[in-house]
Specification:
about 850 residues; Rossmann fold; Topoisomerase I, domain 2; Topoisomerase I, domain 3; seven-stranded mixed sheet; 23 helices; about 30% helix
Length: about 850
């Protein structure tokens, strides 16, 4: 009988996967291995071997630090191991497991390689086999679904680990690992040592992915901080047709119009005022009426990148939090396919399983039975395409979009975390949408001429919800659907060319131009995947667009998390989700040569790695180029122009607790000699330099506005007081005897829940931020729409009667002016819509 050793990354791959297809029970077990049915199984829990550190390659006469490490010296750089000198060292924390692996490799006849279906998973097992110079047969097992039937199918299709696809993965991973080591170890040491020469303390890290990403963010920060806003006017008319509801239209300038900026916005106040005066009270006519029927196909199933972006947009989850939840759904609950994929398409064979998968989803989530009428498992979306799940050489790729799988035993989502439930919900809705019809709608565009001026209005009327009924999405902005122009999507009257319209009013709304937005987690993920957008050269941009950016599906989340931890990215002054580069990061990026931080260079290296994988470029050729590049980086670093950073807020003030040295860590000021820590964000407010200094010197700040209590139910104003021992802060209220806890938790306007029942299932609605949510059927109602908060009576009318009275005070996005309308609850899709009554219908 053949003696088989199975090598996996995680124990769950075996206990919750492979064991279901291997007869027998566990006969022997240790910390990281087990025997079952005469076969041995071992799991590595990540990399069991790691690249040797620079100290391994430096001569023994290099002086040692107090920590017994060799000191960093510019004269030792670059550190470049020879082609045959690269060393892998066993992880000392896995000594017993590695010893057992050595024993089992000698015992077995064949290894079954269970690494994940990507470059990282390939290298994780391959490097262990190479370390022990294993020469016996190795077979590759690819598993993307823990369903027992799927596992048996995979075991019936075991492949040779020497196939080009797997050797290509190994070449890619080895080249990337060594290039990252060369650039990271040498670049970081060179820039850090140069920083010390000019008086800058701290580590200045350089990396093949994080450095170009940091450069992109730094340039965005520069644009924002150098941005000079200017005023402009938005000219909007309220029009009244002979028949049909009133509607708004926006002024459209002529091609030769004076008084515009380069983006076509009117900046000349006299021009805007003249238009308003000439058209107000006048009668115009419809010059163009375009009505077209349009449709949108369902979005593709999710890859990890899109899943992470959805998780951040909807729930504020970090990329790593989404990755961890998805991995749990795959590994432990077995309700989802392999998540670390960058592919969004599915094989056509997946469509054959649709009925069974849909049934399993509805069994796990019976609350979704209400959307079953919108699903037809015989429909086949564009996602099912064999050509899209093949490698460039025509081989089937083991990766496909993330979709639900059929668990072997019934699972109870109530036992999952809320994050796991939400991530699962994102995946299943994206999958179910593939079996729904297209979203169909009617798009209407009206052009009106008044006194020689042209005005445009756009409206959208849903005809068939199709896949949108699957998503049941909350509207994207304060509960209101928007057009592509960021205007409320209104139903326009049915007019024909030549029809008359009266201009009831013309409003001028003064606005200021705004800078581009700061980066957040979503934008960082998108920047890594779509690197070409930040490349200037058009030819190179086109070339990079065909690639997959920088980083990998498995590593991008960790890169962002690490950069936050190192405080290269810190919270921006406005917007908790928004990030900006720290002073330390800016000094580093500004000093680095363009060749190191240029996104085009990073993209070029990524493409070179792909060439190594395909065999178009040899490993030796790639490493020779990488070594030349690193030598250039070190030489440039030696003479890089850097400035010593000015002391950060608090650094020149002694510790209030022990008088020791305070160090600014970006998000906090901490003492180097005691446990004093002052966080720079308190009660939802980012503290400025003067407030930090006041706390450290005086123990108290000025009166601060818009502080938020721990329960986040209301905002309040208070001074902050410092605990000089710990660094913790607490609010001080100017009114004597004010209760801290009461002031922080009592809302200004409390919603009376007793009278607010879910219109769908009659359960009691629960408040969550600016929404009321049903814990039973997940109905959601925004309590604030377009800047207008709804009071108890208005909410009750909307929920019980389905419509409110005409309400005023709604503000169009981008400050396009206020408007009035009724709110109506659409009981077909359970969304709130605007209703604009005819003039005079409600006494207006």
């Amino acid at each position: 009988m053949e003696k088989v050793l199975w090598i996996a990354e995680k124990e769950s791959q075996l206990s919750q996967g492979i064991y279901s297809a291997i007869p027998g029970s566990t006969e022997d077990q240790g910390p990281g291995w087990a025997r079952r049915g005469g076969q041995w199984f071992i799991w590595l829990d990540g990399h069991a071997f790691q690249q040797a550190p620079p100290d391994h390659y430096l001569p023994d006469d290099v002086p040692l630090t107090a920590g017994n490490k060799k000191v960093w010296r510019m004269s030792d750089l670059p550190i470049i191991p020879g082609a045959r000198a690269w060393k892998l060292l066993p992880d000392p924390r896995k000594k017993a497991r590695i010893a057992k692996l050595k024993e089992l490799l000698q015992w077995c006849d064949v290894v079954h390689h269970l690494g994940d279906s990507d470059e990282e998973g390939q290298c994780l097992v391959d490097e262990a086999l190479e370390y022990f110079q294993f020469k016996k047969p190795v077979r590759r097992v690819l598993i993307n679904d823990y369903n027992a039937t799927k596992i048996k199918e995979s075991l019936a299709n075991i492949r040779d680990n020497a196939e080009p696809q797997f050797t290509g993965w190994r070449r890619w991973g080895l080249a990337r690992s060594r290039y990252d080591w060369l650039l990271g170890m040498n670049g970081t040491r060179a820039m850090t040592l140069r920083g010390r020469e000019v008086g800058q303390q701290g580590l200045l890290p350089v990396g093949s992915v994080q450095t170009p990403l940091l450069y992109i963010a730094r340039e965005r920060d520069r644009l924002i901080e150098e941005f000079k806003p200017h005023a402009y006017h938005v000219v909007t008319v309220q029009l009244h047709p002979v028949e049909g509801p009133d509607f708004q239209a926006r002024w459209k300038p002529r091609p030769d119009q004076d008084g515009l900026d380069e983006d076509g916005r009117v900046v000349d106040t006299q021009v805007a005022s003249s238009i308003a005066e000439r058209v107000k009270g006048r009668t115009g006519s419809v010059t163009q009426c375009d009505i077209s029927k349009k449709s949108k196909k369902p979005p593709l199933p999710l890859s990890m990148n899109e899943l992470q972006m959805e998780g951040f947009s909807r729930y504020d989850y970090s990329a790593q939090e989404v990755m961890d939840a998805a991995q749990k759904l795959y590994d432990t609950y077995k309700v989802m396919t392999y998540p670390r994929t960058d592919v969004r398409y599915l094989s056509e064979a997946h469509h054959d399983e649709a009925a069974a998968v849909i049934a399993a989803v509805l069994q796990i989530r019976p609350d979704l039975i209400q959307i079953a009428d919108h699903i037809d498992h015989t429909l086949k979306s564009e996602a099912f395409n064999d050509a899209k799940v093949r490698t460039p050489t025509g081989e089937p790729t083991p990766h496909h979009g993330i979709v639900p799988s059929i668990p072997e035993k019934m699972v109870n989502p109530a036992e999952w975390t809320e994050r796991e439930r939400n991530v699962y919900d994102l995946v299943i809705r994206a999958y179910l949408a593939q079996f729904a019809s297209d979203y169909k709608y009617q798009s209407t565009t009206l052009q009106v001429a008044i006194e020689g001026e042209s005005f445009t209005a756009t409206g959208t009327t849903p005809v068939q919800l199709g896949w949108k009924a699957i998503y049941q999405e909350p509207p994207p902005l304060d509960g209101v659907d928007l057009t592509e122009d960021n205007l409320p999507s209104l139903t326009l009257p049915a007019l024909n060319e030549g029809n008359s319209v009266a201009c009831l009013s013309c409003s001028l709304v003064d606005q200021m131009t705004t800078p581009p937005p700061r980066f957040d987690d979503n934008m960082l993920l998108d920047a890594m995947k779509n690197l070409h957008r930040y490349v200037v050269d058009p030819e190179l941009r086109k070339l990079l667009k065909e690639g997959e950016g920088i980083g990998t599906t498995s590593t991008r989340a960790g890169i962002i998390a690490d950069m936050k931890k190192r405080e290269l990215f810190v919270s921006a002054p406005k917007g908790k989700k928004k990030l900006m580069t720290s002073a330390q990061a800016r000094n580093l990026i500004d000093a680095l040569p363009m060749k190191v931080k240029d996104p085009a260079q990073a993209g070029h290296f990524k493409q070179s790695l792909d060439q190594v994988a395909s065999g178009a470029l040899t490993h030796t050729e790639f490493m020779e180029y990488a070594e030349r590049f690193v030598r250039e980086v070190v030489e440039v670093a030696k003479v890089a122009e850097m400035e010593a950073l000015p002391p950060a807020p608090g650094e020149q003030i002694p510790c209030p607790n022990c008088s020791g040295e305070l160090q600014n860590k970006g998000k906090r000021t901490a003492c180097s000699q005691c446990k004093f820590v002052l966080w720079h964000e308190a009660f939802g407010k980012l503290l400025g330099a003067k407030d930090i200094e006041a706390l450290l010197k005086k123990g108290e700040t000025r009166l601060l506005q818009n502080l938020v209590g721990h329960e986040k139910k209301t905002k309040f104003s208070a001074r902050l007081s410092l605990d000089r021992t710990t660094g913790k802060t607490k609010p001080l209220f100017d009114k004597p005897g004010a209760s801290t806890s009461k002031a922080m938790t009592t809302p200004k306007e409390k919603i009376t829940l007793a009278s607010l029942n879910c219109p769908r299932c009659s359960a009691i609605l629960e408040p969550s931020g600016k929404t009321l949510e049903c814990p039973s059927c997940k109905f959601k109602l925004f309590s604030e729409l377009l800047g207008r908060a709804l009071n108890d009576a208005e909410l009750k009318a909307l929920l019980t009667e389905g419509v409110t009275e005409k309400l005023s005070g709604f503000v169009s996005p981008k400050k396009n002016g206020s408007f009035s309308a009724k709110l109506k609850l659409n009981r077909e899709v359970w969304k709130v819509e605007f209703e604009f009554p005819k003039k005079g219908a409600d006494g207006a």
